[in-house]
Design a protein that fits this description.
single chain; alpha+beta; 5-stranded antiparallel sheet; 15% helix
Length: 371
């Protein structure tokens, strides 16, 4: 220790065997300055921490020990059922979104019977118009003298597999999956022994489920009313339709029936200038209403009529003018009335006003278009 060490030094003889008092005093003073001890052997100020033998000594406030262990936080109450936050397994936390790999597979919704945009719904946007136009077929049938099938039938004349039959008392025409019109030549005087029928079929090898869903959840409805008794404006119903088809009331109606088959509607009285035809495209699904509404808005059916066999041939993009609408087509000195109506994607019935007595020089036309 410093004091004892100084005492030892004070007794050391100078060279030559004698003690030089001056030299000893000088030595004591020098060592005292270096060790913090005055010449008399007393302490000069605080003792350095390195030499205080572990005793408590006054230290400056800013003299923190560098290697001191940082303070530990007080232990809180133990949560026996929950590990510390930094010890939890990453997958133990509740998910706040789809996993990264699932999000990466999400894309814009398309009409394929799948939930492409990962929102828990299928084909809920109006994206099915192209598939309906390109993969579905509407077939229109006519028969004179009640010669066509009277009940539910898978075919009408040669349709399908044929797409057109314009001879005899039972005739048919089918859209060609291109959005264009096809026409149907009527025969004889169209009256109360004539039938109209319609079917809807959809096929797609790549999206078979989506095509099948459309065929079984969407339908084309036809109506007829004698003496202008059909709804003039767009209407939610036409006679018993859409709830129930009927050929025994006025107005009367039929539909494709949500199964690809034909159902006939018998016309009433002489079909002439006081008669209306009705048309609707309706999709229904109680379990997926958004999907049904989107399919309904995605497509439209157009039904047209022309006097004097002046309707355009198969493959015409329109009936010669915007639909819905009507006009009188001037051919030489004769004008021929024409009219067209559209379902407009709204699920309502729209009427087609017939402008004269309907007979063997009249045409009907039909088209299925994506919107």
């Amino acid at each position: 220790m410093p004091v004892l060490w100084l005492a030892g030094c004070a007794s050391v003889d100078a060279p030559g065997g004698s003690t030089d008092a001056g030299t000893a005093d000088a030595l004591r003073a020098r060592i005292g300055l270096e060790m913090g001890v005055d010449a008399a052997g007393g302490l000069d100020g605080a003792v350095p921490a390195s030499v205080d033998g572990g005793r408590d000594a006054e230290r400056p406030a800013d003299a923190a020990t560098l290697d001191a262990e940082p303070p530990r936080p007080e232990a809180g109450p133990v949560d026996a059922g929950r590990p510390p936050a930094d010890a939890r397994s990453p997958d133990a936390a509740p998910p706040d979104a789809a996993p990264p790999d699932a999000r990466a597979s999400c894309r814009d919704e398309t009409c394929n019977g799948a939930d492409d945009d990962c929102d828990g719904r299928i084909d809920e946007e109006p994206v099915c118009g192209e598939l309906i136009e390109r993969r579905c077929t509407v077939t229109l049938g006519w028969a004179d003298n009640r010669a066509g099938p009277l009940g539910v039938s898978p075919s009408w004349s040669t349709c399908p597999p044929g797409v057109s039959q314009m001879a005899g008392d039972v005739r048919c025409t089918a859209t060609r999956r291109d959005g264009a019109f096809v026409h149907l030549d009527l025969d004889g005087d169209v009256d109360d022994n004539d039938l109209l029928a319609v079917s809807l079929r959809c096929e797609d090898a790549d999206f078979a489920d989506a095509a099948r869903w459309i065929e079984t959840h969407c339908a084309v409805f036809l109506g007829h009313a004698d003496n202008n008794r059909g709804p003039v404006e767009a209407s939610a119903a036409w006679g018993g339709c859409p709830a129930l088809s009927s050929s025994a009331e006025v107005p009367r109606c039929t539909s494709s029936g949500f199964d690809g088959a034909f159902r006939a509607m018998q016309l009433a009285g002489d079909v002439d200038d006081n008669d209306d035809l009705g048309l609707a495209w309706i999709c229904r699904d109680a379990e997926q209403p958004a999907r049904a509404a989107a399919a309904q808005a995605s497509a439209e059916v157009q039904l047209a009529w022309s006097a004097g066999n002046q309707g355009p041939g198969d493959g015409a993009p329109d009936w010669g003018f915007p639909c819905p609408g009507s006009r009188r087509l001037q051919v030489g000195r004769i004008s021929f009335p024409q009219a067209c109506t559209s379902t407009a994607g709204d699920g309502l019935f729209h009427h087609l006003d017939l402008g004269q007595d309907i007979d063997d020089n009249d045409d009907l036309g039909i088209a299925l278009k994506g919107r």
